[in-house]
Design brief:
By secondary structure, the chain is α+β, with helices and mostly antiparallel strands. The protein is 53% helix and 22% strand. The protein has a 5-stranded antiparallel β-sheet with strand order 1-5-4-3-2. Helix 2 runs antiparallel to helix 6. The protein is globular and about 45 Å long.
Length: 156
């Protein structure tokens, strides 16, 4: 094998390694679950799961409603906002750059016969705040959101 082929093979190997590393990291950056329940029931279960896990349900943004008004045909698609007020107040003072991430959000939308629940994994932010009080909050939120998604997607 000539030098140019070795270089190309090495580059291909590097690109593939980078691709799989990014794919693995992005998989953990998002938390998701699916529910077989009808959309209204899945939404109620999500709201109950949020409150049962010690969080305060804040509001629902009806993304589908706004898109339908603009002529798009879209199935139910909502963003559910929630959090713990004392933690949000603490973080807004301790790390004001985190305000765009607050309150926590879970997207819930209809996809065929399933309802998909999707959230950003707050645990991924912890690596940027190692050694600070806020890192533990992100880890806790990541665990709690996993539990909320599991509770909301569980079949009765």
């Amino acid at each position: 094998m000539g030098l140019p082929r070795r270089i190309l093979a090495g580059l291909a190997l590097c690109v593939m390694s980078l691709y799989f590393a990014v794919a693995s990291a992005s998989d953990s950056a998002m938390l998701h679950a699916q529910s077989q329940d009808p959309y209204p029931e899945a939404m109620m279960k999500l709201q109950r799961a949020i409150e049962a896990n010690g969080y305060r349900f804040s509001r629902v943004q009806r993304v589908d409603y706004g898109l339908r008004k603009r002529g798009y045909d879209i199935p139910p698609y909502r963003i559910v906002f929630f959090g713990k007020p004392e933690q949000i107040r603490f973080l807004s003072v301790a790390q004001p750059e985190l305000l765009p991430f607050l309150p926590l959000k879970i997207i819930i939308y209809q996809e065929g016969d399933n309802v998909v629940l999707l959230a950003a994994n707050p645990s991924t932010l912890a690596r940027f705040y190692r050694g600070k009080d806020v890192a533990g909050v992100f880890e806790t939120w990541g665990r709690d959101i996993r539990k909320i998604l599991a509770d909301a997607s569980r079949s009765d």
